[in-house]
Amino acid sequence: MPLPLILLGEVDSTQAFLERHPELGFCGVLAGAQTQGVGTRGNVWESAQGAGLWLSAALPVPSVPPGLVLQRAMAAVAEALEPCGVPLGLKWPNDLVAWQDGRLVKLGGIIGKAKDDRLLLGVGVNLLWAPSIPGRAIPPACLKDLAPASVPAARDLARTILGLWEDLGTHREPAFLWPGPGDAIQWDEGRGTCRGWLEDGRLSVQTDKELEKLTGGDVRGLGHDPA
After folding, report:
1. Which parts of 82-162 are beta strand (E)?
2. Please, which residues bridge with residue 117 across strands?
3. Are residues 105 and 193 in the same domain?
4. How many domains does the chain have?
5. Is the pLDDT of residue 185 over 60?
6. Is there a single domain that holds both residue 212 and residue 170?
7. Are residues 208 and 134 part of one domain?
8. Which of 70, 119, 127, 166, CA to CA, is 20 to 30 A from 64?
């Protein structure tokens, strides 16, 4: 049976809404706008009225390695958007990205946490508009700029994603993964060359000193190495 989807005109955060209402059980929440949208590491996620998909879901905790949960969930979002005809990929560890005029751009972000017997997933995807954030190695973009004739309605997209999220045990392949083997990358703490994505969700990177296996919590500001 499909997960019920609660529709809200405006809310502080769909993720916070689900945390406040454990009595709702397993369900999805879609908002037209968020006044206090949350990104990774407590960053603000700009979520204007009608501009994108602002969706959270409370799900049973899946039997998936913790480092893979958000990657699997975002790969499902990429699959749900395949009918748009735009090759969508994952930027490690779990951002939704695409190539635009030879440059990598970010369309979506995801957060998640296990709370009691529920997994709370929250995703934001820029469908019709994206904020301007100067200085980002990988700047925001919206789907309309890439596929103006095939942007889906947020409600239809949310229902498709919820159906896919009910099966996070399935491995889904997005159009591409970035970085890939051989890509030179830099982050706030260092730089190196990508060796590949590992089965537990970590990233294998060769630095000048050693082979490192990075987790999402190890890295801030991942981007292209201009050297």
Report:
1. 89-91, 95-100, 103-115, 118-126
2. none
3. no
4. 2
5. yes
6. no
7. no
8. 127
Predicted TM-score (pTM) of this structure: 0.94
- The 3-state secondary structure of the chain, one letter per residue: CCCCEEEECCECCHHHHHHHCHHHCCEEEEECCECCCECHHHCECCECCCCEEEEEEEEECCCCCHHHHHHHHHHHHHHHCHHHCCCCEEECCCEEEEEECCEEEEEEEEEEEEECCEEEEEEEEECCCCCCCCCCCCCECCHHHHCCCCCCCHHHHHHHHHHHHCCCCCCCCCCEEECCCCCEEEECCEEEEEEEECCCCCEEEECCCCEEEECHHHCCCCEECCC
Indicate whether 33 and 18 sit together in one domain. Answer: yes
Q: Which domain holds residue 163?
A: 5-178
Write out the two tokens for 118. Answer: 């529920």
Indicate if 53 and 28 belong to the same structural domain: yes
Residue type (1 letter), 110: I
User: Of the candidates 178, 218, 213, which has an alpha carbon nearest to the alpha carbon of residue 198?
Assistant: 213
Lowest-pLDDT range, 10-19, 136-145, 218-227? Answer: 218-227
Judge if 32 and 86 occupy the same domain. Answer: yes
Number of neighbouring beta carbons within 10 Å of residue 116: 8
Question: pLDDT band at 227, cuts 50/70/90?
Answer: low
